[in-house]
Structures are given as structure tokens and as C-alpha cells.
Design goal:
By secondary structure, the protein is an alpha/beta fold. It contains 16 helices and 15 strands. The longest helix is centred in the last third of the chain and has 23 residues. The structure holds pyridoxal-5'-phosphate (PLP).
Length: about 425
């Protein structure tokens, strides 16, 4: 093994036992429970090695071979590899790996494509959109005029007729598709046609699905979009961060919108870790992983339906499902709490046309990226659905949930996250 100044846990235990105990506690939490939060995953040891490296020390404002600091030859290699790997994996004309997060990627895309005051057409938040798609508490809703489109009440899938009508009526400068809580495939071609009809840019926010795209498990938005924004830490299983893919003609505008317009020095250790994740995602194992994530998503949604939870839109084509709990008489908030007490981590979610306030919500969102990384398949999805069903219905409270937590301990011991 080459000499590598890597993470030394003994050193951390000596200098900062309080934070060392947080790291141990978090590892135990990951190993001891079921991670069903749809936006989370478990990174590989190789990704963690790049993250915990001396590259965190380097100031490298600018881009490879165009830096504002000396000494960037090594980090230039990391960023060039990350860019090349992203372009090759997604067939994109250009890639920018510097956004610190999905939100930062979206901020840069707005900055590159629209001016403050311009109108943007995006999915309404309670119907699955992200808060960077026009929420009043976010830059997007403060600085841009937002018009929201919806899912149909009967099918709970995107109402493309409404999208077109709103586009024709409001003439947006940019249309956004891509969601945080939408289980179905999105028809990127239909959005492209609508954008062309009104002369708008099409930005696809593929934060959730980009890992499924990498593994060929869902269609790619890249051929249709002007700009694709994504995260690297969801299904893609890389370090926490953002990424932008775009057509070659937009490369300079996107790069300038990231640095210097919205960010300063890039996180070079994170960019190196993104390169590692993109390398992993190009391998046949990752294709199998992405397809299994979707197969598990379908199996989990079907098995939860058998537990009396109604899958929104009837099921899923992706890694996540939304379940309407109204037939069980349980709110999303109650379900989230009961499951957490049984060491099942999932989150409450508003369902389309939800009669309850968002703080309570009528649904839960579940996802399969983490449990699939742990090696679980369809039989375990059915087992998990049974456990979730018992937790959600656990009116008797703490004793039943403690018993469940023990059963979950037995299941996850067979599929350990970060096995020793
Ligand atoms: C997760 C997500 C983001 C934001 O990513 P962060 O890294 O949390 O900032 C943006 N858009 C969508 C659709 C997402 O699901």
C-alpha cells in the first residue's frame, strides 16, 4: 500500500474524544437501523478516503489550468478527471463539479439562464417540487416570479396539458422539471417541446435520479435539457455535493455562474471524491445496483400497499415511493415518529392535494438506495414492509416499538452497513 496520510481515528480519539464519540455513535446508528430516507445512501470506503484527504487544504479558485493560486497541478488532475468522467458517463457536452450542493447547483443554473424578476415555471412544492423551485423562503421565490404546475388529481402524475397551458399563458424564461417527491418517470421530451414552443430554457433538476440515469435504470434527461442540475450524494452514492451538466454552448455561462458568481474556493477533497464516485458509477456493478434499486422500490411499494398504505400514483418507476396513510388513520408525522422509535428512518411527506398541514402531512416517503447498497433484495423489501406496517400501526406505543427495533437489529446484522 502506498503511504497515505489518511484519517487516523486514534489521533482524533486523543485530541477530541467528544467528536470521536459522535463518529462512533453515527456509525452504530447506520449499522443498527434501516435507512429508508430516499435522498440518502452509503458511500464507499474509496469515496471516504478521498474525502478525508489533504486536498481539503488547497485553495483553487478557478478551473483546471486557469487558477488564481499556484500549486494546483494535483488538484487540477482530480477536477479534470471528475469532469471527463461526468461527461463520458452522461454523454454531456460539459460538466461542472464545483457546486457545494444541489441547492448551489440550482442557484448557479438560475444565475446562468435567467435574470431577477424573470418568470420560471416549476412544479408546485406540495406536489413534489423542491424548495429551490420557487419557494418564498428561498432565493428562487424571492428573486424570480414562479408559476407552479401540478399533478392531476385522478392519476397523481404530471398534468402536461396544464404545463403547456401555463407556459403559453405566462411565457416563462425557464421551465424546471425534476422533483423531490415524485415516484414516476418524467417525460423530458414533452417538457422540451413545451419549452421550445415558448422559447424557454429547460432545466432538469435530476438531484434524485441522476444515479439511476448513470446506471441506465431510467431515461436520461441530458439529450433534452439545456442544463441538468444534480446532487452527487443521493442514488449516485458519492460525497455530499452538486454537479451541473450542460450543452457545450452553455459551458462558459455555467462555469462563470458557479465561480465567481455564486461560490469561492472549490472543495477539492469533495471534487476528488466525486471523481471516485463517478468512476464507480461507470462500472457494471453499478448498473446492476441501479436496476436493483428500482426493482426494490417497486417491491417495497407493492408490499406496503398490502399493508394498507396507498402508493401515490399507484406505484413507482424509481427508487422512491410515496404512501398515503389516510386509510390507516395515521398522519405522516406520527408514522415518521413511530418508525424512528423502531429504528426505521423514513420521512413524512405531503401527498398531492393533501388535506393536512405540511407539519402533519398524510403520507410518508420511502427509498431504497441505502438498503440496496447493503445488499438487500425483493425478499427483504417484503420483510421491511411488514416491519414498517407494524411500526406505523403501533398504537400500543413504546413496548411494541422496542420489540420491533430488536427484530430490525437482527435483519440489518445480516446486511451490515460498513461491515467490519
Ligand atoms: C435534494 C434535492 C436538491 C438539493 O440538494 P442539496 O444538496 O440538499 O442542496 C435540489 N433539488 C432536488 C429536486 C432535490 O431532491
Amino acid at each position: 500500500m502506498a503511504t497515505f496520510w489518511g484519517p487516523d481515528f486514534g489521533e482524533l480519539e486523543r485530541t477530541d474524544p467528544e467528536i470521536a464519540s459522535v463518529l462512533l455513535g453515527e456509525l452504530a446508528r447506520l449499522r443498527g437501523g434501516l435507512q429508508l430516507i430516499a435522498s440518502e445512501n452509503l458511500t464507499s470506503p474509496a469515496v471516504l478516503a478521498a474525502l478525508g484527504s489533504t486536498l481539503t487544504n488547497k485553495y483553487a479558485d478557478g478551473y483546471p489550468d486557469r487558477r488564481f493560486y499556484p500549486g494546483c497541478a494535483e488538484v487540477d488532475r482530480a477536477e479534470s478527471l471528475a469532469i471527463e468522467r461526468a461527461m463520458a458517463l452522461f454523454g454531456a457536452g460539459h460538466a461542472n463539479l464545483q457546486p457545494h450542493s444541489g441547492t448551489s447547483a440550482n442557484l448557479a443554473a438560475y444565475a446562468a439562464l435567467v435574470q431577477p424578476g424573470d418568470t420560471v415555471l416549476a412544479m408546485d412544492l406540495p406536489h413534489g417540487g423542491h424548495f429551490t423551485h420557487g419557494s418564498k423562503v428561498n432565493f428562487s421565490g424571492r428573486w424570480y416570479g414562479t408559476v407552479g404546475y401540478h399533478v392531476r388529481e385522478d392519476t397523481e402524475t404530471i398534468d402536461y396539458d396544464e404545463v403547456r397551458d401555463l407556459a403559453l399563458a405566462h411565457r416563462p424564461k425557464m421551465i424546471i422539471c425534476g422533483a423531490t417527491a415524485y415516484p414516476r418517470l418524467i417525460d423530458f421530451g414533452a417538457f422540451r417541446d413545451i419549452a421550445d414552443e415558448v422559447g424557454a430554457y429547460l432545466m432538469v433538476d435530476a438531484a434524485h435520479i441522476i444515479g439511476l440515469v448513470a446506471g441506465g435504470a431510467v431515461p436520461s434527461p441530458v439529450p433534452y435539457a439545456d442544463v441538468v442540475c444534480a446532487t452527487t450524494h443521493k442514488v449516485l452514492r458519492g460525497p455530499r455535493g452538486g454537479m451541473i451538466l450542460c450543452r457545450a454552448e452553455l459551458a462558459e455561462r455555467i462555469d462563470k455562474a458557479v465561480f465567481p458568481f455564486t461560490q469561492g474556493g472549490p472543495l477539492m477533497h469533495v471534487i476528488a471524491a466525486k471523481a471516485v464516485a463517478l468512476h464507480e458509477a461507470a462500472r457494471p456493478e453499478f448498473r446492476r445496483y441501479a436496476h436493483q434499486v428500482v426493482a426494490n422500490g417497486r417491491a417495497l411499494a407493492a408490499a406496503l400497499a398490502a399493508e394498507g398504505m396507498r402508493p401515490v400514483s399507484g406505484g413507482t418507476d424509481t427508487h422512491l415511493a410515496l404512501l398515503d396513510l389516510r386509510d390507516l388513520g395515521v398522519t405522516g408525522a406520527e408514522a415518521e415518529q413511530r418508525c424512528a422509535a423502531a429504528r426505521i428512518l423514513l420521512n413524512k411527506t405531503a401527498i398531492p392535494y393533501d388535506p393536512r398541514k405540511p407539519a402533519f402531512a398524510s403520507g410518508i416517503r420511502v427509498g431504497t438506495p441505502s438498503v440496496t447498497t447493503q445488499g438487500m433484495r425483493e425478499p427483504e423489501m417484503r420483510e421491511i414492509a411488514g416491519l414498517v406496517g407494524r411500526a406505523v400501526r403501533a398504537v400500543s406505543g413504546a413496548p411494541a416499538l422496542a420489540e420491533l427495533a430488536e427484530e430490525i437489529g437482527t435483519l440489518v446484522a445480516k446486511f451490515s452497513a460498513y461491515p467490519t
